[in-house]
Write a structure and sequence with these properties.
Layout: E1 25-30, E2 33-38, H1 41-44, H2 52-63, E3 72-76, H3 82-90, E4 93-98, H4 103-114, E5 121-126, E6 140-146, H5 155-165, E7 166-176, H6 181-190, E8 194-202, E9 207-214
Parallel strand pairs: 3-4, 3-6, 4-5, 6-7
Antiparallel strand pairs: 1-2, 7-9, 8-9
Length: 217
C-alpha cells in the first residue's frame, strides 16, 4: 500500500507586482498635495481606475495652473475624478461628472481627497451624454476629458456634449492615447465644428493632449 501526499503552493499576495490598474488604490502628488485614489476595477472596470491620459492631463493642469485658476471648468467621463480634483486644487470652480453607475464611486473618491481642503470649489454630478444635456444650461470656460474617446457608439453624443457645454471662447482639452482608427475618426468629427491643435505629446506614455476651440463662422 502506497500513500501519495499532495502539497499546495502558498502564494504570498504582493500588490506591488500587480498592474497599476487593478491595485485597490494609488497615490499621487499634485499641487503639493498627496492624493489617494481608490480604484474599483472589479466592480466598475475601466471607469474606476486612473489611466495614463488622466495623469498626463493632471501634469498639464499643474504646469499651466494660471490657465485654469478661477475658471468655470467641467470634466467629462471623470471616472476616478483625479483630473477634476487637481483642477479644483489649482483654484478652478469645477463640475466633475460621469454616468449614474459611476457616480457613487466618483463622489466618494472626490470627497475623500478634497474634504479637508479650504477654498476648493467643486460639485459632482451625473452626466450621461446621451440623455442628460438638458440638465446642464451653463457654458464653461474649460472642458476636460481624459480618455473619453473610447466607445464609438457615443461619439455623436460626446460631440454634441462638447458643443452644448461650450461658448465661443471655451477651451476643450482632450487627453488620449490614439489606439484605434475610430479614435482618429472622432478627431475628424471634432474638426467639423472645432479647431484642433496638439499641445502636448508625452512620448513615454504615448499620450497626446489636444486643444479644441469652436470654429467661428
Amino acid at each position: 500500500m502506497s500513500c501519495q501526499q499532495s502539497s499546495t503552493a502558498v502564494v504570498v499576495y504582493d500588490e506591488s507586482k500587480l498592474s497599476p490598474l487593478v491595485k485597490t488604490s494609488r497615490t499621487f502628488n499634485f499641487v503639493k498635495t498627496e492624493l489617494v485614489i481608490k480604484q474599483d476595477w472589479g466592480n466598475l472596470g475601466v471607469a474606476a481606475v486612473v489611466w495614463d491620459a488622466a495623469i498626463v492631463l493632471c501634469q498639464f493642469i499643474e504646469k499651466y495652473k494660471d490657465e485654469f485658476k478661477n475658471k468655470e471648468v467641467i470634466e467629462l467621463g471623470a471616472g476616478s475624478g483625479i483630473v477634476g480634483i487637481v483642477a479644483a486644487l489649482i483654484g478652478a470652480n469645477v463640475v466633475i461628472t460621469d454616468r449614474e453607475q459611476v457616480y457613487p464611486y466618483l463622489k466618494r473618491v472626490v470627497k475623500e481627497n478634497l474634504k479637508d481642503k479650504e477654498n476648493v470649489k467643486y460639485s459632482v454630478k451625473i452626466l450621461d451624454w446621451t440623455r442628460d444635456l438638458h440638465k446642464f444650461s451653463q457654458k464653461y470656460d474649460i472642458i476636460l476629458g481624459a480618455d473619453v474617446i473610447y466607445v464609438e457608439e457615443v461619439f455623436d453624443a460626446l460631440l454634441e456634449t462638447l458643443q452644448h457645454l461650450s461658448h465661443d471662447e471655451t477651451k476643450i482639452y482632450l487627453s488620449c492615447k490614439i489606439r484605434y482608427d475610430r479614435d482618429t475618426r472622432f478627431l475628424d468629427m471634432v474638426q467639423k465644428h472645432f479647431t484642433l491643435q496638439e499641445v502636448l505629446h508625452d512620448k513615454e506614455k504615448d499620450i497626446k493632449i489636444f486643444l479644441c476651440k469652436k470654429i467661428k463662422y
